[in-house]
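Minimal example, chain plus FE2/S2 (inorganic) cluster.
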Amino acid sequence: MSRLRVASLSRLPENLTYPITLADDTEITLVRVGSEVFALYDRCSHEDIPLSQGKVLPEQCRIKCRAHGAEFDLRSGRALCAPAFAPVRTYQVVIDGDDVYIEYDEDD
Ligand code: FES
């Protein structure tokens, strides 16, 4: 399991996406909702559209794809409505002071 610092909590805008790219070109979007930060693979499971271009729905803890309106749970990545049915990958987020880390298995 690898831990990688990806952002400063104080610089993450609330209820907006914050796309990042890892050294291996994996694209992830961070989403801050209140004091929580979520990390999802930055592609809709319906078609190849970045979720970071979508709309955060903070009250429901969801993100809505801009292309065709599929919604995903920020916590689990679960697809919540058509036309997406498959989940998107999520990453464990660790917050330590102002430092935001993601944890991931490099073999995945
Ligand atoms: S590409 Fe996301 S809902 Fe179609």
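The radius of gyration is 13 Å. The longest strand covers residues 2-8.
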